[in-house]
Amino acid sequence: MGSFLCKAVHYIQNLSTSCSVLTLTAISIERYYAIVHPMRAKYVCTNSQAKRIIAFTWCLAILLAIPILCVQVQMEVGDRFKAHWCIRDWDNESLWKFHEVYMLLLVLIGPTCIMSCTYTLICWEIWKVMEQRNVMTSRTALSRNRIDRDKYAETIELSNSTKAKSITKSEKEDTRVVKQVVYMLVAVVVLFAICWGPLLIDNVLTAYNVLPKQRTGYLKYMGTTFHLMAYFNR
């Protein structure tokens, strides 16, 4: 069971990672359609479509996690006392390097690029809509003021002052909400990169012998910290 569990446990870990990353990417695309293309979203973002996407996400994650089965091996160590390690296949360095670069592209670079694009377009669309709304509100207020100026000459100054304050307050509130949305979307991408980046980059550097395979001292604690950071984002 040792060799089987060595591959199975790491396969399930990669399956969970792939599924989580694909889900976050799919959510960003769904938000893009809902905000930037609301009319198209009525046909794209439906319950039946969501079920298909969930099924497709799991099927794709199952396929994308397969390469770990070729890289993870059980190795016997020790002379007097035999033991077994479940590690990457150090003897097949080319396959090991390919897998770590593959995971870096799959988990970090690809999803980060997609989420950055979708959330940037969402932020731009929200900001553009708010600018158009502010312009329309200002024009409407000016039209009403001109009509009121003819009918209520005596009270126009007070009315204009009250409306101007109301419009300014509304614009400030809208701007504050937009900024909060933008900050939230930026935080999603930044936290994703911060949580996954160190672990994946560390794996690539280890595969290319930039960092030692045997971890001692601060490198051991650094690796543990990187794993915990990745788990926090799942």
TrEMBL record:
Cell compartments where the protein resides: Cell membrane
TM ranges: 12-33, 53-75, 101-127, 181-201
Major subcellular site: membrane
Keywords: Cell membrane, G-protein coupled receptor, Membrane, Receptor, Transducer, Transmembrane, Transmembrane helix
InterPro entries documented for this protein: GPCR_Rhodpsn, GPCR_Rhodpsn_7TM
GO MF term set: G protein-coupled receptor activity; peptide binding
UniProt cross-references to Pfam families, sorted A to Z: 7tm_1
GO BP annotations, alphabetical order: cellular response to hormone stimulus
Topology class, membrane: Multi-pass membrane protein
Keyword Transmembrane belongs to the record: yes
One GO CC term, this protein: plasma membrane
Domain G-protein coupled receptors family 1 profile, first and last residues per copy: 1-234
The keyword Kinase is annotated on this UniProt entry: no
Family: Belongs to the G-protein coupled receptor 1 family.
Name of the protein in question: G-protein coupled receptors family 1 profile domain-containing protein
Gene source species: Photinus pyralis (Common eastern firefly)
